[in-house]
């Protein structure tokens, strides 16, 4: 065996000779490896871009938004150029996409964090015991609370959920399990899609017109508002449940059928438990979608200053309407009304957070056990 190196080649040439038998020389080209940026390079480049752009923006009038935007642009361009020179085109493209995706995520988080900070900072001042134990009956200025609005919101939203969840889930089961491809299923899907996009005020006007025809003009009570919210909830529950049922593998259904289990029991014991977490999440999103609606409740329920626990008699207060009137038509002095409006908004956010926690617990309890 003899080994030689040709200065004109980029690899190592190996030739093998034997007794009467000689094999042609084989050449293996070893690619040249690119370098890699140190771990501190991205953060260092980001800091340098921030410092440089701070000086540039300060020269023309400092603006936080403009400074952040220019810093991100310079950082993205600098990262791509430096990585391309050191690591190659593929790694540079990967780093550029990472910067763009991360920047888009942080940009989407800005309004969310801003809303959370504003509502918590403004509403925390009235998060006291009086706010949760007193109503606004007889209160003109300072003091009072939102007990009547909290109770009204829970009652009306609970009634809406009680009416819309069974209808929505059963409709989705029909569309996926029984009516696939039928004319009725296509018609239901079309109307569900139309209902998904209707404005909330239209749902309120529909409920108000319906009960005006049944009970006469000027009728306003809690159940009318629950019907309006039901119109908004049903399409969301149908679409979310339908999508969850579609992802259940057909093999699970076929295995159940092979054991002689009837279809209704397969749906009840196999299909629905498999997607219980997704269905619960969709229902939670539907409730969160309607619990803050103001326009339909303004039309159908109105405003009350005292506690009313009967949704079939007289007006009821709700948190969205309570916050709206406190902010839009404050009394004198103005500050107590504004504080109550922010506190009502914070309570709404807390209720939605609790609903999300409950949905996660339901999904964990009813999810199929893998062990």
Write a brief structural summary.
The protein is built from 14 helices and 3 strands.
Helices and strands, with pairings:
Elements: E1 2-4, E2 12-17, E3 22-28, H1 41-60, H2 64-86, H3 89-123, H4 129-133, H5 147-178, H6 183-196, H7 200-215, H8 222-246, H9 250-258, H10 263-274, H11 276-291, H12 295-300, H13 319-328, H14 335-366
Antiparallel strand pairs: 1-2, 2-3
Helix pairs in contact: 1-2, 2-3, 3-14, 5-8, 5-11, 5-13, 6-8, 7-8, 8-11, 9-10, 11-14, 13-14
Question: Which key features would you list for this structure?
Answer:
mainly alpha, 14 helices, disordered N terminus, 3-stranded antiparallel beta sheet, 2 domains, MetI-like fold, 69% helix, 371 residues
Give an account of the 3D structure.
The chain is mainly alpha-helical and 371 residues long. It folds into 2 domains: 41-125, no CATH class; 131-366, MetI-like fold. The chain has helices at residues 41-60, 64-86, 89-123, 129-133, 147-178, 183-196, 200-215, 222-246, 250-258, 263-274, 276-291, 295-300, 319-328, 335-366; strands spanning 2-4, 12-17, 22-28. Strands 1-2-3 form a 3-stranded antiparallel sheet, with no helix packed on it. Strand 1 (2-4) and strand 2 form a beta hairpin. Helix 5 crosses helix 11, helix 5 crosses helix 13 (319-328) and helix 6 packs across helix 8. It is flat, with a radius of gyration of 32 Å.
| Oligomeric state as shown | single chain
The outline comes out as: flat
- Count of runs of 4 or more consecutive helical residues: 14
CATH architecture of the largest domain: Orthogonal Bundle
Arithmetic mean of pLDDT: 84
Spatially, the strands of the biggest sheet line up as 1-2-3
Structural class: mainly alpha
How many individual domains? 2
The percent range for strand residues is under 5%
